[in-house]
């Protein structure tokens, strides 16, 4: 191991080409996570047919990865600051690849939920490490803005490539193949990363406090579980108990951080208004968007009858918009202002989500494509600039912790969005009337999920089956409209809040010192 005091010098020494080559390795890690997140949505109808999960199990398969990753991100970001971000990134990438095999060969809903949870443990090491390494490799603020733009563009590109590659695989192989595409990416990342990535860590980190790790994990998972269960099943003693345990544990976590000499998370970061505002904007934006992202591929496949590859291609405008906007975001924020770019991006997403209420069962593609393009542009602008603000507002020794807070907000928003908006879609959906003469068990299966309705219809006479599917599709679209309307209100409100909270916030111009 290199002595800690020499490590910062080591990343200072990276030549200009070396910095960009190192960035290309980090981009692979981002692709790994982004592709994986999108293929799950695409594989959901096939997975449902094979593993036959209940509606609740299906939500758990979608959510548990976010739960675990949200609970561990701060701990992993802090661990990377201590043991070295390169070491953590490469270890996590190896684990991510191996656990992907378990996802691919899951034989029951329960095993799939466990596999997704383990993938969350591995995934929690990747994103904070990539952003922290960017913060420590790129010392010039303008160069760093470009690097963050490329990092964000890679996430968007992965989200686009995932459905297209996944769609191709689903048409030619079994659903588990979509998880196996992680393996070659992981192999390249590890082999190349060992040689090309510089190691960086906090030269005087202090111990990694295991009690804080446990408190943050229990606290976040308990809070998210309470919200999810409350959204799906309504208030109950179990939900109330989980909420109380979660809030109390997080309060204990915060108190402990304030008394520790070397806290897992430096709570003083939140005193920086720009940092706090950017984190809050990320959380609320993802909350508003998550329902759309989770249900869009089901809409394209099960309502509009598109094949998986076609559904993947139909989602491309969002990624194209996000890639282009992400690359231009830093320049735009310096030319206009941070708050103009972030608020403008969020307002654009809000308007696009509102336009989804115009989408019906047979809506032609141009309207849908235009909506997705606007969502992509808005997200590319907002997320790239908030990531830049978050990284610029902390000392580079704490880059892992700061990145982890940003990623925790993202994952928490995703879990809450899928839980809240997902339960709204499910609640509206379950209310649809079944055709006369539909047997009770078939009606129950149809009310579980849209995939369940399509499968249940095959057991009925052709006419009754067609009526059942049409009623289920109408109800699903109604649910999508409700969730999009709520998402739209959340995004517009966040845009207004960001305008005030990011007042006076600027991106740095050169390689200046950091507070």
TrEMBL record:
It holds the Pfam family MFS_1. SUPFAM superfamilies: MFS general substrate transporter. InterPro entries: MFS, MFS_dom, MFS_trans_sf. Residues 22-506 form the Major facilitator superfamily (MFS) profile domain. Its main location: membrane. It is a multi-pass membrane protein. Signal peptide: none annotated. Keywords: Antibiotic resistance, Cell membrane, Membrane, Transmembrane, Transmembrane helix, Transport. The chain crosses the membrane at residues 20-46, 58-76, 88-107, 113-134, 146-168, 174-198, 210-228, 234-254, 275-296, 316-333, 340-359, 365-391, 412-432, 483-502. It is found in: Cell membrane. This is MFS transporter. It comes from Streptomyces koyangensis.
């Amino acid at each position: 191991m290199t002595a800690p005091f020499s490590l910062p010098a080591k990343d200072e020494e990276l030549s200009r080409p070396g910095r960009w080559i190192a960035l290309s390795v980090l981009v692979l890690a981002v692709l790994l996570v982004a592709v994986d997140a999108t293929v799950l949505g695409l594989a959901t109808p096939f997975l449902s047919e094979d593993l036959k999960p209940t509606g609740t199990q299906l939500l758990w398969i979608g959510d548990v990865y976010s739960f675990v990753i949200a609970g561990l991100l701060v701990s992993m970001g802090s661990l990377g600051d201590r043991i070295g971000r390169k070491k953590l990134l490469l270890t996590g990438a190896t684990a991510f690849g191996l656990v992907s095999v378990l996802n691919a060969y899951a034989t029951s809903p329960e095993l799939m939920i466990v596999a997704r949870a383990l993938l969350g443990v591995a995934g929690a090491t990747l994103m904070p490490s990539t952003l922290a390494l960017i913060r420590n490799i790129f010392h010039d603020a303008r160069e760093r803005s470009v690097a963050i733009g490329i990092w964000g563009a890679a996430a968007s590109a992965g989200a686009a490539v995932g459905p297209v590659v996944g769609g191709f695989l689903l048409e030619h192989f079994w659903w588990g193949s979509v998880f196996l595409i992680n393996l070659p990416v992981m192999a390249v990342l590890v082999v190349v990363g060992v040689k090309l990535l510089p190691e960086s860590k906090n030269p005087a980190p202090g111990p990694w406090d295991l009690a804080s790790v446990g408190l943050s994990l229990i606290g976040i998972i308990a809070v998210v579980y309470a919200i999810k269960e409350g959204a799906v099943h309504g208030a109950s003693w179990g939900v109330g108990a989980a909420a109380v345990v979660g809030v109390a544990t997080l309060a204990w976590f915060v108190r402990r951080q304030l008394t520790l000499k070397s806290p897992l998370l430096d709570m003083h970061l939140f005193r920086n208004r720009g940092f706090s505002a950017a984190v809050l904007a990320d959380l609320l934006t993802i909350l508003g968007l998550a329902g759309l992202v989770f249900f869009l591929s089901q809409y394209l496949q099960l309502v509009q009858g598109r094949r998986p590859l076609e559904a993947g291609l139909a989602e491309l405008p969002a990624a194209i918009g996000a890639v282009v906007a992400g690359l231009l975001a830093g320049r735009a924020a310096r030319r206009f202002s941070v708050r103009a770019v972030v608020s403008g991006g969020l307002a654009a997403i809000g308007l696009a989500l509102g336009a989804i209420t115009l989408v019906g069962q047979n809506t032609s593609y141009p309207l849908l494509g235009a909506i997705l393009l606007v969502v992509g542009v808005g997200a590319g602008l907002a997320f790239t600039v908030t990531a830049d603000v978050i990284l610029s507002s902390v000392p580079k020794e704490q880059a892992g912790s700061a990145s982890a807070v940003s990623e925790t907000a993202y994952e928490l928003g995703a879990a809450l969005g899928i839980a809240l908006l997902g339960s709204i879609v499910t609640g509206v959906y379950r209310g649809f009337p079944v055709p006369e003469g539909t047997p009770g068990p078939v009606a129950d299966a149809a009310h579980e999920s849209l995939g369940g309705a399509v499968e249940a219809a095959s057991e009925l006479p052709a006419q009754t089956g067609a009526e059942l599917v049409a009623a289920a599709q109408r109800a699903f679209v109604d649910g999508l409209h409700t969730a999009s309307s709520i998402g739209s209100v959340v995004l517009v409100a966040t845009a207004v809040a960001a305008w005030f909270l990011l007042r006076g916030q600027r991106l740095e111009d050169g390689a200046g010192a950091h507070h």
